[in-house]
Design a protein that fits this description.
alpha/beta, 29% strand, Udp-n-acetylmuramoylalanyl-d-glutamate--2,6- Diaminopimelate Ligase, Chain: A, domain 1, Hexapep, UDP N-Acetylglucosamine Acyltransferase, domain 1, flat
Length: 344
């Protein structure tokens, strides 16, 4: 895909300084820009690169003033960083704007879909599935029976959406993600063997949710596992059965949340955090990476450590912990001196 400077300026409502007919077909960092690429400058620390870059077009702030001539066409906007982000979104929409049903693929006769469906090769859509408008299902994806997917949803290659799952509008499910797999439910018998408990609930994904590659969200034993509006889940996260995650909470990679735990809204949870089951985490909670959460957490707490302490207490404790060998040496010397005095 090629775009002229004049087209880009129109999208961004920017002003052109240079050649409006110059074309670009790729995006690049300003220090790595080559002919035919588009870049941007927002951080003053990178200003020197604008005079040496080979990029054909560079987006800059309107108040930016050149100190010497450049070889690139400038597009001046109010905020170059936000404008470049807008352009990335536009580019991604164009790149992913596929439609039609590729063959071989399968869609059950009992299933329905809205306008502008894309169904990639070797994808499978089961019985009684309802797909909204502008749904993109990439190759080798699986959509189980009785699944409902809203408008403007992307299911990338190899993702698996199990039966009865409900997905809202404007969601993204990345490659390898599994939504609706059985929860980890087993009960021991008199022989100390484990018998599987049927998992007959489902998963509900509300609007504007992003699910990262390799992330697994288990169906509920009864009822629903619920991911609320605007939640962003990174790659390789485990969400167990009957968990509920509140609106606009963000969770980083390799975090595990055990069954029936409720997480509030607007929380920020770092990578490799472990959260036990059947607890409640409040709103606006921040949990540092590699923490272990084994208790209920109140609104606005900031936690670190395993088991987690308040962020301030953890830092104070860590100061003493890293000095523990010296402290022990001092204690041993005092103990020897005390024993010597007792013998005397």
């Amino acid at each position: 895909m090629k775009f002229k400077a004049s087209q880009i300026a129109e999208i961004l409502e920017g002003e052109i300084q240079g050649d409006p007919e110059v074309e670009v077909s790729q995006l690049a960092k300003i220090e790595e820009g080559e002919a035919g690429s588009l870049t941007f400058l927002s951080n003053p620390k990178y200003e020197s690169f604008i005079y040496s870059t080979n990029a054909s077009i560079c987006i800059v702030n309107k108040d930016f003033v050149l100190n010497k001539p450049v070889n690139t066409t400038l597009i001046k906007v109010e905020d170059s960083y936000k404008s470049f982000t807008t352009l990335l979104e536009y580019y991604n929409q164009v790149k992913l704007n596929k439609s039609g049903i590729e063959q071989p693929s399968f869609i059950a006769e009992s299933s329905t879909h809205g306008e502008n469906l894309y169904l990639g090769a070797f994808a499978y859509v089961g019985n009684n599935v309802k797909l909204g408008d502008n749904v993109k299902i990439f190759p080798n994806a699986y959509i189980g029976d009785n699944v409902t997917i809203g408008d403007n949803v992307i299911v990338f290659a190899g993702a698996k959406i199990y039966s009865e799952t409900l997905i809202g509008n404007h969601c993204v499910v990345q490659s390898g993600a599994i939504v609706g797999s059985d929860g980890f439910g087993f009960v021991p018998n008199e022989k100390d063997e484990y018998k599987k408990i049927p998992q007959i609930g489902n998963v509900i994904i509300e609007d504007y949710v992003d699910i990262g590659a390799g992330t697994t969200i288990d169906r509920a034993t009864l009822g629903s596992t619920i991911i609320r509006k605007g939640v962003k889940l990174d790659n390789h996260i485990q969400i167990a059965h009957n968990v509920e995650i509140g609106e606009h909470t963000v969770i980083a990679a390799q975090t595990g949340v055990a069954g029936s735990t409720k997480i509030g809204k607007n929380c920020i949870i770092g990578g490799q955090v472990g959260i036990v089951g059947h607890i409640k985490i409040g709103d606006r909670v921040k949990i540092q990476a590699q923490s272990g959460i084994g208790r209920n957490v109140k609104d606005d707490e900031v936690l670190q450590g395993s088991p987690a302490l308040s962020y301030g207490d953890f830092n104070k404790s860590y100061v003493h912990f890293k000095n523990l060998p010296n402290s022990m040496n001092t204690l041993n010397q005092l103990e020897k001196q005390l024993n010597s005095k007792k013998k005397a």
